[in-house]
């Protein structure tokens, strides 16, 4: 069954910065969607911050299997109620791929429960991304490492929770390292953080980056809806699986 | 060095429900503090929801090494700005022990990034808490299991992130199970969730529960402050550890 | 592409115990294979302890994508060299599903690095298996729990490493709990331990058990071979990715 | 209470290689013990491969709280029965710190259940060890990173299980990265793998390395003995916690 992928683009620097516009004439979201669409089972569409409800309408989210998120300059403009809506869909089982500066997006920080800080440098230096977990489906088809000749540096400590698994670790020319590919589950939703993707460099034209994105979407896909996780139901005494007799003091005289 | 423990109590049902008041004439927070104080290296104090700033002033938090949180009826009354203040202190390294219905506190849900739901029943049934990780410091001095003759049931799925380690799993008379002791780290802060503690039963008079609380406080204690994790600093090119030359297009003309 | 599944059966109690023979006239391996074969993309075959090289020839392993292992009475009869061969195939990427008393198989203990002990009772009591991680692919299609009216009890502590994820937790009528579904990766091989399956009860005729087995095989499947993980190669100085000059004292005068 | 630390040294290259002998006139074990002894609560002693039973007698192990292991050239000479004895003490609760080339020791591979391979280069290049988990007790007192001007390179993938937590990640001058500090628990024993320590360089004269070793020993210490984890006891029906009646067919006519 085809997987419905929505690429969320902030679409700000594409409009303001010549280098970004030249790298990504279709917008970063457009190029990210193009990379994902190389797998014919993946059906990408794009939305942007500027769309009504930032493109994250109830209907659009209901029809999204995996959401890919790139933002940088305008995290603060994303409305809190939309953030909650996205987060709830993740808990229900929608996959989420967070890219690069999206580490500071409200959605990602909300799901991590941490500041997701790091230190950084914009110098166009070399990044070498090592596969530390070659058997993981997100690393499928990659060599031992791949390089991006010009990238922004992100350095440790990256204040995120210990992941389920660490897939990639980056080496930077200026002397830093970074855990560049991390997996999480929140509720029924699979989450993958992938570091590269600074807007002034042609990262989303790189073949290995495309491979990682397609692998990640396939990995994150969960065909089922687990909306039941959004509730905390009472199981009354007379519905207990094993027979029990009520005892002791109660707050609730009748089961809620 | 003595560990400064602050016990946060909601102090609502103690005032409204006769059974709770009889169980806990000093308030639940008072009795929890008494259990913790049995270890002479632990110095507990108590604050409640009704205190100014819910007792969570900047100064009080600065002087708290480990915070213990019990709440149930009034999670919604805790102000969001106080929640953020508490969460930031956890990221800096303050330990946090979340008890029972505190699973639905704003502080805990904020740090987990999940709804922290479960299903439940108030019937005074038997709970048997099994130690599944006997080598963990939080299980020190316990037998293979201990029992609470009357407890509220919490049943799986408990929608929290996969923990660093699972310490306890509960068996309930009515047929359910629950992961009753879970560890996390968020930023530099150690977090322990411990299930038992329904207010209409005498749980915080149980010797094993006291042992777990004292173990947990000692485990969660982190003597250092890691406020640096709250920042995302730039490392300018001329301060790179390894010599590099700036290349490519930039968003920032001067390092921020 | 079809997934080649090999079911390894010990085939001892089927020959000696009337109840086992009646439950499993085709052998336990035969019935486990039948359950797996209900997914038409899975192609199960069976081998047994009594086969030459216990059925685990180099060729058979090379043609196995996922191995399912049931053993109990004769763990000690499995030759160490065969155990090493199986373990190496797991490291290369073969999936492994270990069932019930297979927790004490040489293969499982070798991969865990722990004794994999537990406590137990054979009394035909009720087991209720709760799904604690409903979003995991191994839990797909199950309800909140399922029951086996007669099973052997396994009780905690189960001395295995903290898993990647806990999928199931069992409730037992006699008062115990057990982490009944646990995932691991060793090298490139995905491993799932699944608790139920005592030979004197009809567990492998249960529809939910079948569903779990098929889900687990699909989850564990890794289409790639990572035999490179069995080597520790030298990267000589003149092949370093970044130019470096050899310095300091050496053990090795010439790169190995 | 003082912590009894045993440093196990292979003591082979100290006798054969001039550079090693000059770096470590007291043997590597002697210098590692000296670093550990700077914490007055730690009481280090040393044993070597050449001692009777490799110094790992039943008595010595019974009197060891934390074992530190350095080996390289002679892993194969360590007798299998001694390896099993050490591994069982770890399961009981003895801490274990494995250093550098000890990744290929029988003891470490036995406890990991993986080949623990990597790729390597002996070129005296610069290693920079980044703290990725600053709140962990093993990182206490360190800056954001520390450097070793000359070290052997170890490169990913390091085929070990996903750790409980990743503490350090190394940057190498020649372009590689490595997860240099990893924690595990096996049975009740805490295990820390720490990468640096090639014998031809003065690594164990470095102040930060000393700090890590002392932190790691304090972290790994477990005052309790959990020998019960080495057994898999039967709990007979008439000793079940909750009353149950035996049902169904049995393998065992009388409880074992």
From TrEMBL, chains A, B, C, D:
UniProt name for this protein: Trehalose utilization protein ThuA
Coiled-coil parts of chain: none
InterPro entries noted in UniProt: Class_I_gatase-like (IPR029062), ThuA-like (IPR029010), Trehalose_catabolism_ThuA_prok (IPR009381)
Transmembrane segments: none
Domain ThuA-like as annotated: residue spans: 4-220
Provenance organism: Devosia insulae DS-56
């Amino acid at each position: 069954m085809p997987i419905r992928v929505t690429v969320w683009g902030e679409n700000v620097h594409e409009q303001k910065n010549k280098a970004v516009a030249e790298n990504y004439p279709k917008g970063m979201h457009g190029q990210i969607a193009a990379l994902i669409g190389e797998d014919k089972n993946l059906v990408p569409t794009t939305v942007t911050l500027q769309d009504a409800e930032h493109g994250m309408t109830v209907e659009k989210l209901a029809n999204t299997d995996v959401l890919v998120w790139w933002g940088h300059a305008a995290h603060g403009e994303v409305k809190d109620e939309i953030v909650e809506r996205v987060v709830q869909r993740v808990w229900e089982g929608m996959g989420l791929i967070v890219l690069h500066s999206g580490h500071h997006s409200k959605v990602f920080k909300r799901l991590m429960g941490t500041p997701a800080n790091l230190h950084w440098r914009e110098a166009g230096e070399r990044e070498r991304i090592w596969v530390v977990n070659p058997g993981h489906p997100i690393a499928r088809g990659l060599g031992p490492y791949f390089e991006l000749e010009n990238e922004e540096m992100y350095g440790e400590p990256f204040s995120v929770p210990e992941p389920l698994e660490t897939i990639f670790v980056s080496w930077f020319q200026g002397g830093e390292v970074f855990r560049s590919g991390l997996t999480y589950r929140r509720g029924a939703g699979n989450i993958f953080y992938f570091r590269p993707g600074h807007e002034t460099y042609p990262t989303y034209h790189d073949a290995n980056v495309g491979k990682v994105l397609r692998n990640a979407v396939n990995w994150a896909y969960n065909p089922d809806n687990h909306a039941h996780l959004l509730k905390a139901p009472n199981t009354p005494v007379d519905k207990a699986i094993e027979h029990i007799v009520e005892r002791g003091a109660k707050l609730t005289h009748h089961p809620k």
